[in-house]
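quick one before i forget lol
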Amino acid sequence: MKRAFTIALLFVFAPFFVAAITQTGAEKAAGRTELKSLLHVPAANYRQEWVLLGSFSVLADDPEKGAKELHVVYARPQTVEVYRETGEFPDGAVLVKDVFATKTEALTTGIASYADTLKGRFVLVKDKTDRYAGKSPLWGDGWGWAFYGGTETQKTVTTDYQKDCLGCHEPARSQDLIYVQGYPVLNR
């Protein structure tokens, strides 16, 4: 009798358990999709529509050969406005850094290095409350972190921001991990 009652209960409540498990799986998948959708190279033509914050040249191993890379950073106009007012990046701010291989040659002005081939793009998304930290190894320390090789815009090569990104950004921790001294447009 107990066995028949247990089996009957399973048939009655099984759809609810399956729905709960499926819903939980769907919610988790939606969360992963949301996190991935936040970290991508913007579809908008950011080089024309966004503000150029500034650029850095990275010298070649032999400095006489000029720069080996040029890093050019962009943000939305609203991000710049908020930063100038508050001294902080607003939640959801997106920074895009184009990383170019350079070409160096002697010009009439001297030895000059300039952007040549796009090596990839680094995308940062501000997460002021760390709501995504711990949900993905690409999120933490107040940012979402991703690098997209070449012309790729959706699939990042970054696997863990702590291993792949913090090595370069740690010296700028007192500046929210961003080298703002290279971005004169942010001066308040």
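fyi Residues 1-38 form one domain.
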